[in-house]
Amino acid sequence: MKKLLVALLLGLVSAGGYAAEAEGFLKWVDTIHNADMNKDGMVSAHEIMMYNPKEAEVGFRPFMVDHFAAWDADGDGNITMDEIHNGMVKANMTDKDMSRAFFEMTGFQPPRSNK
After folding, report:
1. Which of 56, 62, 80, 111 has the fewest CB atoms inside 10 Å of its own CB, making it the most exposed?
2. What is the DSSP code (8-state) at residue 93?
């Protein structure tokens, strides 16, 4: 049941990433899947540090390091797609903002205004 919910959430969240991809940014969901080395649907601090980002993902590691503790809501050392989504909501970030962050941000960035 939990895996079904995660798969459903992934489908819903990834559907919004197509616009960002069309603008030249790799969809952030694809980056998370690429970094998830053991394919358990979560990304750990170790996986973030060990992932070798592509050119279109250069901001992934600094962004996730900056946000890891705040987004790991249950403190288990892994960030689920639910936790990422909740973190995006709290940071007032859209799918486009996440994809752009993984593409261009190289350190702490304040939340962007969606106006």
Report:
1. 111
2. -
Distances (CA, A) of 70 to 4, 17, 75, 95: 26, 23, 9, 18
pLDDT tens for each residue of 16-72 = 443 444 455 678 899 999 999 999 999 999 999 999 988 778 888 888 988 899 999
| Size of the chain in residues | 115
Encode pLDDT of 69-103 as tens digits. 999 999 999 999 999 999 999 989 899 888 888 88
**Residue that the structure tokens 């990422």 belong to:** 84
At 56 the three-state DSSP class reads helix
Category of 91 on φ-ψ map: left (φ > 0), alpha (ψ -120 to 50) or beta: alpha
